[in-house]
Amino acid sequence: MKNRFSEFSIYSPFLQFLLLIIVLFFLIHLTKKLTRSYIVKNAIEPHRRKLILNLSYFLYYTLALFISLIIFGINFKEVIVFASSILAVLGVGFFAQWSILSNLTASIILFFYHPMRIGDTIKIIDKDFDLQGTVKNITGFYVLLYMPDEKREITIPNTIILYKGIELIKKQKNS
Q1: Structure pTM?
Q2: Which residues of 140-164 are buried (b: 16+ CB within 10 A; e: fewer)?
Q3: Which CATH class is domain 116-169?
Q4: What pLDDT digit, counting tens, does each position of 85-116 carry?
Q5: Of 69, 81, 123, 172, which has the fewest CB atoms closer than 10 Å, so is most exposed?
């Protein structure tokens, strides 16, 4: 006689997938707590917290997708072929749009190593660009600069911010 719980062994794909979902939610919760404490400790802007969380979520979900494909019987070699095909298509697309790739790379460098922050007033030191304004936003492709003298906002590609000299103008403290 067959036990009615025999199909719910720990080796069944359904329970493995359920365990994967539980681990995924635990990792997301842990990442939120660690990111929040790190941001408070190091005084990092909220928009950077959102970017860190979005990148970690993307990594978690991608990893969970591949693990769930393996759990439900997709051959690991087929998953690798599929992933490498996707990466090859992305690589060709990025090579075709080299400026997009350079702006994304510049945004990562600006995010981690540049002293410029949202709210800072900067001046681009270059003979071609005579721009000075307040940084309103830093995205993956451009920096939004508000120029109060002309009352306009302009977007500057991240590569220009990275490759040109930038003067950080100190904020005046009202006393």
Answers
A1: 0.48
A2: eebbbbeeeeeeeeeebbbbbbbee
A3: mainly beta
A4: 888 877 776 665 566 777 777 877 877 777 78
A5: 172
H or E stretch at 156: strand 152-157
Contacts by residues 121-124 (CB-CB < 8 Å, ≥ 24 positions apart): 121/168, 121/169, 121/171, 122/166, 122/167, 122/168, 122/169, 123/166, 123/167, 123/169, 124/156, 124/160, 124/161, 124/164, 124/165, 124/166, 124/167
Distance CA(153)–CA(4), nearest Å, equals 67
Q: Hey, CA dihedral for 54, 55, 60, 63, is it positive or negative?
A: positive
DSSP letter assigned to residue 168: E
- Domain ranges within the chain, ordered by starting residue: 9-96, 116-169
DSSP string, 119-155: T-EEEEE-SS-EEEEEEEEE-SSEEEEEETTTTEEEE
